[in-house]
TrEMBL record:
GO cellular component, one term: cytoplasm
Taxonomic classification: Eukaryota, Rhodophyta, Bangiophyceae, Porphyridiales, Porphyridiaceae
GO terms classed as biological process: charged-tRNA amino acid modification
Ranges of residues in domain Rit1 N-terminal: 17-279
Protein name: Rit1 N-terminal domain-containing protein
GO molecular function list: tRNA adenosine(64)-2'-O-ribosylphosphate transferase activity
Entry-linked InterPro entries: Rit1 (IPR007306), Rit1_N (IPR033449)
Highest taxon listed in the record's lineage: Eukaryota
Length: 297
């Protein structure tokens, strides 16, 4: 007689969780959750109460899936045709590049993600872009979004200052700090800022000064002010803000900028969905969970 192995509750949970069907269904549902709240912004009137709120731009922004995990979370659902589509736009901000920037003072010249800058310069996207990424369970946001992305945008803005395309006050550390979330320590920021002059030189040497100047000038000709970042969870809640609405208001007044021309990047972490929206799918294809309702609030 064959012996049956007793599987404890925790072991069963891990087996089900690691099942490929369960993972794919979870990714599908989590993707639709992100897509749903972005679509809701098209009809939301919350931003009308705050003329300096920026989230109303998100539905117009290009949705970049950050390679590789983030590309799974750009799924959209068309309720009319009942079809699914996935954004083909991507960025490649690696977490290890952010670690190397801090620990080794290196800046990746092989993953420049210049398509992001093109998106920010496009009036049709309201000078905004959405980047979606995910990381391991238990971590709020991947380092690709909290470190690598801010490092890249800091270098771009400092280059704009170098080429007289942006006021020099926007290269001050007090402004550059707004590109990094509060989870990045002051000592880490100090080391990163110390390396920026070298990274500018490396980028200029790699592309060519005249060529880089002309490209930045043509792509960002219609924008005003520095590139700002907001970090959001998968359901649209703020993880960290570069500036709150009141601070944005004062910032615009002091700098004499028009808000709709200030470029914004919305970094969305899909990581916490796995914890808050756990699905249980059976490998045989018989699903015991309640399907994700895209009409829910």
């Amino acid at each position: 007689m064959d012996e049956f192995k007793v599987i404890k509750g925790n072991d069963l949970g891990r087996i089900v969780e690691r099942d490929i069907f369960n993972r794919l269904c979870s990714i599908r549902d989590d993707s639709l959750r992100i897509s749903h709240w972005i679509e809701k912004l098209k009809t939301s009137t919350n931003h009308e109460n705050s003329p300096f709120s920026t989230t109303s731009r998100i539905p117009f922004a290009i949705r970049f899936g950050n390679r590789r995990c983030g590309s799974w979370y750009t799924l959209s659902h068309d309720s009319v045709s009942n079809t699914y589509s996935r954004s083909l736009d991507w960025t490649h901000f690696k977490s290890t590049d952010g670690h190397s920037a801090y620990n080794l003072g290196t800046f990746s010249l092989s993953r420049l993600n210049l398509q992001l800058i093109q998106s920010l310069g496009n009036p049709l996207t309201r000078h905004s872009a959405v980047i979606i990424d995910a990381t391991r369970r238990g971590k709020i946001c991947p380092d690709s979004l909290t470190r690598t992305l801010p490092v890249f945008l800091s270098v771009i803005d400092c280059l704009r200052v170098e080429f007289s395309l942006l006021d020099s006050k926007f290269a001050q550390e007090s402004i550059l700090m707004k590109k990094f979330p509060q989870c990045v320590s002051q000592s880490e920021l100090s080391q990163i800022f110390a390396w920026i002059p070298k990274w500018k030189h490396d980028l200029i040497s790699s592309i060519g000064r005249e060529r880089l100047l002309n490209w930045l000038k043509s792509e960002l000709e219609s924008v005003q002010g520095p590139i700002l970042i907001d970090w959001l969870s998968s359901n649209g809640n703020a993880l960290w803000n570069s500036m709150d609405d009141e601070e944005i208001h004062q910032f615009m007044l002091d700098a004499q900028l028009e808000l709709h021309k200030v470029p914004f990047v919305y970094a969305i972490s899909a990581s916490n969905v796995v914890q808050s929206h756990h699905q249980t799918h059976i490998a045989s294809g018989i699903c015991t969970c309640t399907p994700f309702d895209t009409s829910a609030g």
